[in-house]
Design goal:
Elements: E1 2-10, H1 14-25, E2 30-34, E3 46-48, H2 49-54, E4 62-66, E5 68-72, E6 78-82, E7 88-91, H3 93-107, E8 110-113, E9 115-122, E10 125-131, E11 134-145, H4 152-156, E12 164-173, E13 180-183, E14 194-199, E15 202-209, H5 215-226, E16 233-240, E17 248-249, E18 252-254, H6 270-285, H7 291-314, H8 318-327, H9 331-341, H10 348-358
Parallel strand pairs: 1-2, 1-11, 2-8, 5-13, 11-18
Antiparallel strand pairs: 3-7, 4-7, 5-6, 9-10, 10-11, 12-15, 12-16, 13-14, 14-15, 17-18
């Protein structure tokens, strides 16, 4: 089987599906190649409510609207923060990703369930893919690599794998919470945080770290500290560490987790994956692949770099994490954080206000 298209998007998660949708809406012929439409990525499933309006995503996929968070310091200091005018939408990743793919397909993208195998040629790009039990050759002018942290496209191009951290999450049914909880403490989340998120049928509890052999022990320590006694289904997954060093190689563009575009400190990935897909698509529509890097950096580089420094400072030990929680007792810090994290304020003033509050810790 031989197929031709202007753009081949490899990977149908938030980054790839959004890229395919914007390309199709721009009149570009695009194939979206998704390896497994039934795959559900382990994820807390929190998406800022502002993203639904920004990307015209149907709110029918929202399972819960969370309007406050709880932060717990290493010493047990608790802080409740109410959101103002926005909320954190909790989604089921399988349903959410399928909705984004359906939007791409309705816009005109060709959705194919198949697996990227290798590049056969690069002038133009010729990709070998397994579509069911059939070998397919897909010829395209551009390729968007959106196939996640374990990217086969990166491997095929001999690009060094992205650095990663490890997360472990447990889906526990029958336990309820109406808030998102963030727990800090080196005993269960060294240089990371632990979390409890509401889900449609219970909660998702989890933590993160750099050593895969220790990750299960960290989860048990967190459950003991937070008082969670029920058990559920446990999943371990890798998440990329942002470096900001990969955007495109010729007419191959890298987006989302494949490019390591997860926000440092918060480890938020869904929104930034969708934005990277949008920016990559617009660069292709303009026939200027290099524009992708320029636009992404203009919008996000300073934010990611700042959060990278704040993560290194505040999550280096428990004393520093105590400072982070204490700072968020101040109303002006809460407001600046909501502008940046939930409202996705793109103005310079939004970032500057955050830098003024936290800059003294970085000198």
């Amino acid at each position: 089987m031989k197929l031709r298209t202007k753009v081949l998007v490899v990977g149908g998660g938030p980054a790839g599906a959004t890229a395919a949708r914007f390309l199709a809406e721009g009149g570009v012929d695009v194939i979206l190649l998704e390896r497994d439409s039934s795959f559900v990525k382990p994820c807390g499933g929190g998406v800022p409510s502002s993203a639904f309006d920004e990307f015209s995503i149907p709110k029918s996929v929202v399972k819960k609207e969370v309007k406050s968070i709880k932060i717990v310091s290493p010493m047990g200091e608790r802080l409740d923060i109410e959101f103002k005018g926005v909320y954190l939408a909790i989604v089921e990743r399988g349903e959410f990703d399928n909705a984004l793919r359906e939007m791409a397909e309705k816009s005109g993208a060709r959705l194919i369930e198949g697996e990227f195998v290798r590049f056969i040629d690069d002038k133009p790009y010729k990709v070998e893919a397994n579509v069911g039990e059939v070998k397919a050759e897909i010829v395209s002018e551009y390729v968007i690599a959106a196939d996640g942290v374990n990217s086969r496209v990166r491997t095929a191009l001999s690009i060094k794998p992205t650095c990663t951290l490890f997360t472990i999450s447990e889906r526990i049914k029958g336990v309820k919470t109406g808030v998102c909880e963030f727990w800090f403490g080196s005993s269960h989340a060294p240089c990371f945080y632990s979390w409890v998120f509401p889900k449609s049928d219970g909660i998702s509890a989890g933590t993160g770290g750099s050593e895969p052999k220790e990750i299960r022990t960290l989860l048990e320590k967190f459950k003991e500290r937070s008082g969670i006694t029920s058990d559920g289904v446990v999943k371990i997954y890798r998440i990329p560490v942002w470096k900001g060093d990969l955007f495109n190689k010729g007419k191959i563009l890298f987006v989302g987790d494949c490019a390591g575009q997860v926000m440092p400190l918060s480890h938020e990935g869904i929104y930034y994956a969708m934005k990277s897909g949008e920016y990559a698509a617009r660069a292709i529509i303009e026939e200027k692949a290099d524009n992708y890097k320029r636009v992404w950096k203009a919008r996000f580089q300073k934010r990611f770099a700042l959060m990278d420094k704040l993560r290194d400072y505040f999550l280096k030990d428990d004393i520093s994490a105590e400072r982070l929680v204490a700072l968020h007792r101040r109303p002006e810090v809460q407001e600046a954080s909501m502008r940046l994290w939930l409202r996705k304020d793109s103005s310079k003033e939004g970032l500057l206000s955050y830098m003024r509050l936290f800059g003294k810790f970085l000198s």
